[in-house]
Amino acid sequence: MVGKRAFPALFAALLLATSFSLAAEQQQDLTVFCAAGLSGAFNELGQVYKNESNVSIDFNFDGAQVLRTQIENGAYADVFVSGSNKHMNALKGKGFIDNSSVFMLAKNWQAIIVPRDNPAKIENLSDLAKSGVKIVMGSKDLPITDVTNQILNKTANDTAFGPDFKQKVLANVISQETNINFIVAKVALGEADAAFAHKSEVSSEYAAKVALIEIPEKYNVKSEYTIGILGESKNPAEAKKFLDLVKSDAGKEILIKHGYEVA
Questions:
Q1: Which of 35, 113, 148, 260 could lock onto 83 through a cystine, CB 3.0 to 4.6 A?
Q2: Could you give the angle at the alpha carbon of 251 between the alpha carbons of 212 and 34, nearest 5°?
Q3: pLDDT tens digits, residue range 172-228?
Q4: Low-confidence ranges of the chain (pLDDT < 50)
């Protein structure tokens, strides 16, 4: 008799445990691979999303080219946020991305950053070719490296710079970093005199330690930031909800606050 009375209670306990298990699966965290320069904006977006959904975002911030390589080599992610179309398109072409989920979330101009005390007296683009100037750049395939080369290529046929301007600037490069945050840190700490950087991607940690010098629009290049869901995502519905936040009015306000032009 005791066993019969205990059965309903045991069944109810098992049912409750199953319900909790299903709820846990439905509320699993999202893994987002995100270009490092977007860390300020996306950390804030991640916190807003957690407050609204009780789902945490596990961010992996690094150079877009590093994140792309990790994905191609089997690393798991639900969402990829790229600092350029180049790396997003490469993953789309290889079948890693749900192509229908991809959209451009923001744009950004480039600037020259220098230490706040500006020891090399950099005042404009031309000054980067001066002998002895210490410049830090990104490593090959980092989005800021691609746009830096585009900017320098635009000067080639301008008599104000001369045909060897790009060569002189590159001769002043003392270090190549794998993400934009490392580039900004080198300048902020006085280890370099100047660098090219996306205007909005100077973190709050270093904002007071660097100054921005505008690049004339005729030479400048505007970066485009894209976001998409990985085809292997175990929770694409939740990933879509996060993307919906990014492109919502609230999400756009956060991006604007961090200096981006929203799409």
A1: 35
A2: 65
A3: 999 999 999 999 999 999 999 999 999 888 878 898 999 999 999 999 999 999 999
A4: 1-2, 6-25
- DSSP codes of every residue in 108-139: E-EEEEEETT-TT---SGGGGGSTT--EEEEP
- Amino acid type, 17: A
Whether residue 261 contacts residue 104, with contact meaning beta carbons closer than 8 Å, is answered with no
Q: Write the CB contacts of 85 (distance below 8 Å, at least 6 apart in sequence).
A: 224, 226
Domains in the chain and their CATH numbers? 2-107+224-262 (3.40.190.10), 110-214 (3.40.190.10)
Strands 173-177 and 135-138, by their bridges, are parallel
What per-residue confidence (pLDDT) applies to 227? Answer: 98
Dmax (CA) of the chain: 99
Q: At 42, list the tokens.
A: 């996306």
Residue 214 gets the label, from left (phi > 0), alpha (psi -120 to 50) or beta, of: beta
